[in-house]
Amino acid sequence: MKTNSKYFPIIICATLAFGVVLGGWLNSSDESHFLATNNSKGKLNSLIDFIDNEYVDNVNTDSIVDRTVDAILGQLDPHSVYVPPSEQVQVAENMKGDFVGIGVSFYMHNDSVAVIKPVENGPSAKAGVKAGDRILYAGKTKLYGRKWPSDSLFSKLKGVQGSVVELTIYRKSERKRIKLNVIRDVVPLKSVDAAILLNDSTGYVKINRFAETTFAEFKTGLTKLKKVGAKSLLIDVRDNGGGYMEEAIAIADELLKNKQLIVFTKNKKGKIQKTFATKKGDFESGKVFVLINENSASASEILAGAVQDNDRGIIIGRRSFGKGLVQREMDFEDGSAVRLTVARYYTPTGRSIQKPYSKGNEAYLRESESRFANGELFNKDSIKVADSLKFKTPKGKIVYGGGGIVPDLFVPIETEHGDINVSYLMQTGIVGRFVFEELDKNRSLFKNVAFGKLSAKMNASDLYFNSFQKYLSKMGLDVNLRGSKALVKRYLEAEFARQLFGENYYYKIILKEDAMIKRVLSKLK
Questions:
Q1: How far apart, in Å, are the Cα atoms of 174 and each of 132, 169, 496?
Q2: Is 10 inside any structural domain?
Q3: What is the dihedral of CA 389, 1, 429, 108, to 10 degrees?
Q4: pLDDT band at 416; cut points 50, 70, 90
Q5: At what angle do helices 503-510 and 485-501 cross, to 10 degrees?
Q6: Which of 240, 310, 382, 396 has the fewest other C-beta atoms within 10 Å?
Q7: Which of 26, 102, 105, 50 has its CA nearest to residue 499?
Q8: Is 80 exceeded by the pLDDT of residue 114?
Q9: Radius of gyration, alpha carbons of the chain
Q10: Do 465 and 490 belong to one domain?
Q11: What range does the domain containing 246 cover?
Q12: 357 vs 311, more confident
């Protein structure tokens, strides 16, 4: 997460008289601390030099340093991590919210680059690339018949804004090769998946992460929803692992009245930084619901905590992950970076929602898995809360700290998903691949099918359900779908809608039977 440098002031203290009284002790203390620190740092540097210059075999000391950094950070908290140069570029790009490229979603089908869908109004779409096209060459670089690592393949398609790449594609529907000149441009990486109406007066916004563009995307979606009549708002941060806390704060600011506390942080020196709502927000009246689950973390919890602690709305779902630590990214000269925990954050009532990590990183990560075993995902009464961590909102509602946001209205996992294993399977990339291959067999079957008629076509028979069962078997997955037939057919229909019409249409179908959505809509009647 980003933080502001003002959280880390250089404290210059003590009067001259005080310095005279304690000067001798402070000087000797500072000197010994400096020498001890210097000796420790010098020992590491000297060891690397010894290995470089004297060790009998050639050793990649860079990899030794990387492992050493990982080991040191592993002694801190689970969220202080080292990001090597190879990963840092991709991570930074993902959080930036855009990149320069040709603008297609694709995957390696057999041995070729298959276009799932060009980005709407993106460079490839403008050049004439269509869903189902195979990209054979990027310039003179052959892309088919080879097993390209993902990063290498991306590098062939990305480039400088305004640069031209000649794509040689094979269009299966026309059985011919085509050459198209694509002008690379900025391509957005959306963090808001959907902004749609669930009924005449209820808006829904799905946020998948908090990147640099999230607030702007949210604002655009909210404005659109208000124009078409949204009076109530659902913000879905399920499975949202967080990101930039500033983006979550900005969204909370749109929901809260002026001077209401959103969040505060405290660093190791006890410095407290409070953030309040400011100008008039775009949705300060009207009902608000925030949907969370066990994978909602960090910035998602900041947003949910601000809404809950200010009695602004209702939190629905299951207890969130429990990450209340703030990271600051610090860059190294080689392009790598360390994300170091520099503060804790607290919800407006003063809650820390950070779950314990004293038993080590492995136990910390396994805690989420243990929620299956202890029954918490199925029964609200299984959620363990401590009376010592009890807080009250301004209207007297009891809320708890100590490990995640406990929802106001609990929705168990089995009523949301039916068969858990099948549900998780239906949310993986295997569904997208299956649907692509089904469309790829004969796209003309869907050429004149409008969205309104897709459901009737999909549910006229069990054709695609049966085909998907066979597809899984061919892949060696022994999964019986019969007990979850309705769920499977819904996810298949939604994925067809996504690939044919776009992301919003996926959610229009998938949310129809969503237990949390149903719970919200029942509250609005």
A1: 11, 11, 22
A2: no
A3: -160
A4: low
A5: 160
A6: 396
A7: 105
A8: yes
A9: 27
A10: yes
A11: 192-328+342-410
A12: 311
